[in-house]
Amino acid sequence: MKKQNRTVLCLLFFALSVSLMAQSKVTGKVTDEAGDALIGVNILLEGTSSGTISDLDGAYSITVPSPASVLIFTYTGFEQVAVVVGSQSVIDVKMGEDSQLLDEVVVVGYGSSSKRNLTDNVAKIDSRALENVPISNFQSGLSGRAAGVRVTPNNGKVDAGMNIRVRGTSSISAGTDPLYVIDGIPLINIDESSGTAGPLNPLLSLSPTEIESIEILKDASSAAIYGARGANGVVLITTKTGKKGKPSVSLNMSTGVSSPTNTVEWLNTEQYLEFFREAAANTGESDYIEDLFVSLSGDNAVGAVDTDWNDEVFRQGSQQTVDFSVSGGDGKTSYYFGGAYNDTEGIILGNNLARFSSRVNVSHNFNDRFLAGLN
């Protein structure tokens, strides 16, 4: 019995030794062609989710299960490198730039450029940032999402324009709003920030659910094609289009409520009468104030009517949003149809918004040189 126990223990010890011998630790350093350390290079063990990244000195350390393991080195703008571990315990890797990635074309508002030469200051916001935000206009969704872009409402109206300033105010007497370009078409709109009445927002008809992405051009090069109109920045809006694949149907519904906060606490009727009677007694005009109360009360007894002025102005606001879309396409034709309904009641009586909107995008490739579409 003791011999059997010794045999089992020996076998377990042997298996553990083989397992420990099979695993080995690999260290090294990752540099570029000039010999400079690359920070944050991804080192992944091929066929697994195990990996590590290089530190500030380009150094890394990773445990591999066997000599046949393959390490994959990837880094943005550089060619991928694959190395078989073998008997090596130190593997230094030199990565070269990927010319194809550097020459990849980037489309901007005034043409196209390669990543190698792109120096423009562009902030991008995709549709996912706007999907789950309860807003009646997409401009409200830009607040706090792009550096150097300040968004403030003109007033509390749900249909009011927005003050959008890209890198501050660049003019004293002229308009300071950016130029909006929707699907390549510049929008001619009035200055939303002018006047005290709060003009109607000209972009209110564009539902946030129809937007695919928003790019904000913040530097002077945006004036290369838009001229003086782009002096205050350019907001490029791309609406949704059909994607190649099976038809996709989407239905979203949301609702919410809002209530006024930090309201002014007014005097009630009893407090109001007490306040004025005390003041009248101090000035010897008690008879006058009592006659005035009787005159103002009309057919009612003095103090019988008690009005909460907050209730006369405020209410519980609400918002309901429903949007529906159908999209799809094949090798030649793509289509998108979307409709949206928004019903917003502000917390102030009379502050309402009801909007119905729809958008249709259809495009068809007749051949390699001829494309027709409808937006």
Describe the structure.
With 375 residues, this protein is α+β, with helices and mostly antiparallel strands. It has 4 domains: 2-100, Immunoglobulin-like (Sandwich), CATH 2.60.40; 106-239, TonB-dependent receptor, plug domain (Ferric Hydroxamate Uptake Protein, Chain A, domain 1), CATH 2.170.130; 245-261 and 315-374, no CATH class; 269-307, no CATH class. 17% of the residues lie in helices and 36% in strands. It is built from 7 helices and 21 strands. The chain has helices at residues 2-22, 99-102, 128-131, 223-226, 269-283, 286-297, 309-313, and strands at residues 24-32, 42-45, 51-53, 59-64, 70-74, 81-84, 93-95, 105-108, 111-114, 122-126, 149-153, 162-166, 179-182, 185-186, 211-217, 234-239, 245-258, 317-329, 333-345, 352-365, 371-374. The strands form 6 sheets. A 5-stranded mixed sheet has the order 10-15-16-13-14. The radius of gyration is 34 Å and the shape is elongated.
Short summary:
The protein has 375 residues and is an alpha+beta fold. It is built from seven helices and 21 strands.
Offer a few descriptive terms.
375 residues, alpha+beta, Immunoglobulin-like, Ferric Hydroxamate Uptake Protein, Chain A, domain 1, 4 domains, 5-stranded mixed beta sheet, 5-stranded antiparallel beta sheet, 21 strands, 17% helix, 36% strand, elongated
Cα Rg:
34 Å
Low confidence ranges: 11-21, 113-119
- Strand order, main sheet: write it out: 10-15-16-13-14
Helix content estimate? 10-25%
Order of helices and strands: HEEEEEEEHEEEHEEEEEHEEHHHEEEE
The class by helix and strand makeup works out as alpha+beta
Beta-strand residue percentage: 35-45%
Q: Main β-sheet, in a few words?
A: 5 strands, mixed
What is the CATH third-level topology name of the largest domain? Ferric Hydroxamate Uptake Protein, Chain A, domain 1
- The separation of the N and C termini measures 86 Å
| Strands, total number | 21
Q: What is the global morphology?
A: elongated
| CATH homology group of the largest domain | TonB-dependent receptor, plug domain
- Name of the CATH class of the largest domain: Mainly Beta
